[in-house]
Design brief:
The chain is 20% helix and 18% strand. The protein is built from 6 helices and 9 strands. α3 (126-137) packs across α4.
């Protein structure tokens, strides 16, 4: 399978890829919540996930975790034109992805841009979670940083609340001088019920929130993404248009594949390759 990767979207053949982050991992926190990584955005409609307008949209970023089977980052870079990788670093206030450091060295050696994300939970304060993330992720000036702010499907009651997310962002900004990406979906950020439990954030992210100052990494598996209210004026910077599970997009189990990596989520960047390089290092385009 060969993916064009850059300004077009190419559908990989059907495969037996197993879900890695849409299922709970074996590690559980003290409240009994398992670490699911990024839960899927429960928004599936439309005939396909190919955007109507592909101008200045770059399909060259993947996100993964320890549950991903990575064989060779060099193949992903050379044959699938993957430029950037965003890897899970931490979750809550006590869990560290065991593959983060090793994968970082491998990806950077392959000439890829490196990013790190934190999966937020309710169990710990936003400040404590930021402290753990910075300790583990060790972000340098060329490390993209992100907060995964969505419902915790493994334990909905342990989902990060808005105030915690805001405290996390403030702590990251104070330590690095940069605002992290916010990974979320429209329903969650707008305070609507989501998931099988039909639970909501219990609040709405507004334009006055510090989160609205952060670039948006939007999870939406529809043909064209819908932006949360707080980001209407800015739009998204990254769009996770397809997941790694059978329900990870309108194409069902026809998951978009990447050379050298068995399962991953696919993300489009709003801009071209030069824009991506600048944004990754400076956080602005």
């Amino acid at each position: 399978m060969v993916l064009g990767g850059l300004l077009g979207l190419v559908v990989a053949p059907e495969s037996a890829m197993a879900a890695h982050r849409k299922q709970a991992s074996q590690h559980a926190d003290s409240h009994g919540a398992k670490h699911p990584g990024k839960a899927p955005a429960k928004q599936v409609s439309g005939e396909n996930a190919k955007p109507r307008n592909t101008r200045s949209r770059l399909d060259a970023v993947i996100d993964i975790s320890h549950q991903t089977n990575v064989r060779d980052f060099s193949l992903a870079r050379q044959k699938s034109n993957i430029i950037g990788v965003i890897h899970k670093a931490t979750e809550g206030g006590d869990w560290k992805d065991p593959m983060y450091a090793r994968r970082r060295a491998e990806a950077e050696a392959a000439g890829m841009l490196w990013g790190a994300y934190h999966f937020g939970t309710r169990q710990y304060s936003g400040d404590d979670q930021a402290e753990l993330f910075l300790k583990v992720a060790k972000p340098g000036p060329n490390t993209l940083i992100a907060l995964d702010f969505e419902q915790n499907d493994g334990n909905p009651g342990n989902s990060m609340r808005l105030r915690q997310a805001e405290d996390f962002v403030k702590a990251i900004h104070a330590a690095t001088g940069r605002f992290p990406l916010i990974y979320t979906n429209q329903a969650w950020a707008d305070g609507k019920p989501v998931g099988d439990a039909a639970r909501s954030l219990g609040a709405t992210v507004t334009e006055r929130s510090v989160l609205a100052l952060c670039p948006l990494w939007l999870a939406d598996y529809r043909s064209e993404p819908q932006v949360p209210k707080a980001w209407k004026g800015r739009g998204w910077h990254f769009w996770q248009y397809a997941g790694d599970t059978d329900n990870g997009g309108p194409r069902g189990h026809r998951v978009r594949g990447v050379w050298g990596i068995e399962t991953c989520d696919r993300n489009i960047f709003r801009g071209d390759a030069s824009d991506l390089q600048r944004f990754w290092k400076a956080g602005t385009v």
